[in-house]
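User: Hey, my collaborator sent me this sequence without any context and asked if I could get a structure. I don't really work with proteins. Can you help?
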Amino acid sequence: MRLSKQQADMITVEAKDIFGPNARVKLFGSRMDDNKRGGDIDLLVELPHPVMQPVLASARLEARLMQVLGLQKIDVIVSAPNIASTPIHAVAAQGIVL
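Assistant: No problem. I've predicted the 3D structure and written it out in structure-token form, which is a compact way to encode the shape of the chain:
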């Protein structure tokens, strides 16, 4: 995994602040592979409860993470009971829990 423990902890803290204490964050995509370089940070936030305005909440998380991690490309996908699952959700669900 190409995130430091400190970065992973910051991501988790910010996600729980925005989405609630039951939010679980997974890293997926190229950052899971230690042999690759670069790439954006792809995150899946899994929630056991419905979320209101998921697009706004994920944008808020992206903005906060850019502030604490520095300007870089961050993509956030949200999975919740009230959000229709798409193929990217299945891919992201195979990620590493932070």
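In plain terms: The CA atoms of residues 49 and 80 lie 6 Å apart. You can pass these tokens on to your collaborator as they are.
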